[in-house]
Amino acid sequence: MKIVLVNTVCGQGSVGRITADLYETVLRHDSRAVVAYGRGSAAKHIVSYKIGNQADFYRHVCRNFFLGESGFGSAGQTRKFLDFLEREKPDLLHLHNLHGFYLQIELLFEYIKKKELPVIWTFHDCWPFTGHCAYYDKNGCGLWQEGCFSCRYHASAYPYALFKDNAAKGFVRKKRAFTGVKNLVIVTPSRWLADEVKKSFLKDYPVEVIPNGIDLGIFSPKAEQTSKERQGLEAGQTPERAVHTVLGVANIWEERKGLSFFVDLAKSLPENYRIRLIGLSKRQKKVLQKEFPSERLLAESRTESLAKLAEAYRQADVFVNPTLEDNFPTANLEALACGTPVVTFQTGGSPETLGDSGMCGISVEKGNGRALLAAVQEVCETRQRAEASGKFGTIFCRKQAEQFEKIGQYDKYFELYERNRKP
After folding, report:
1. pLDDT per residue as tens digits for the range 201-232
2. What is the pTM of this model?
3. CATH topology for 227-402?
4. What does the DSSP assignment read for 292-334?
């Protein structure tokens, strides 16, 4: 069996890492795989096909900025990709993010329908069934269920159509392109997104929920310690004055990721709390370093080192994810796997990562900064008093993460491949 996996990037960011892991899964099952991607580069050991180039990417971005047509540029590069598919003759396509300014979706789906090519399509956001945006819940917008008429957010919601609202036309073109595929299965990482799909024009397709997988070898707790050892208490230091580290991580700290809530936390938490943020731009670092002393808020750039990221999770007392729009955040799972509890907003599928036990984190009302502050303090103070086996302790966090071990999760995808491949 030969699978072609399609995504904006390969091996970078959460979805890029998922794509690369699925490539390895296919090889592990003695099948063949190719990753087709639009930006960046792929690891040398991965058999890959680069769609487009930098110039084509910028032309597509400009097309979206001025015409509101994300996903409708790159026609020439898409035709070359379809020629590649014609030569490769895959048994199945596994699509991931198609937005990202590298594909003409109408041409792609015209080819899929003509060839009756089986498709698995993993939705990592809501873009496939809206006229424009990847997420809509921060703005409380429900126009995607009505045709995306008169979009108010085209300039402020990714993919940022700065100068023109073309959402209604985009909605019609997507609906025409994406419906009528003979053999298509949609996969969502969260139950929340599965429910949203079932309200959309894609509701007639089968939808399966397969949560994202994580590497439990890389993301793992350090050797078991008592809470006092974890807090690094020295002789004469009282638990009340122990320093608590609050961690936040994002690939890009845009508005929907909740950076402003960390600023509020830095102003409101007691003096024995410090905040560490990873993934900041140079400008964001400069602004935060000017506003807060380094011992209060540690501002760091993005890292592609999973080992460094895992160590950051292990060193934290709580991982805070104040996301305002999300699907099923992999970062939550990574923190839990390292034994660190999570505080998050009740956004999309983010609360689903914590399970129902209440023992490995807290989800609070979306946008409620006071509730977020109280939850952070509750988690840190509870961990200070308890051992690793107590509430919010390492053992409960790790147990919750173990159900998302990546080999088991991605083997579910391979089962889907086998059920839906060309006969």
Report:
1. 999 999 999 999 999 999 999 865 444 434 44
2. 0.91
3. Rossmann fold (3.40.50)
4. S-TTTEEEE-----HHHHHHHHHH-SEEEE--SS-SS-HHHHH
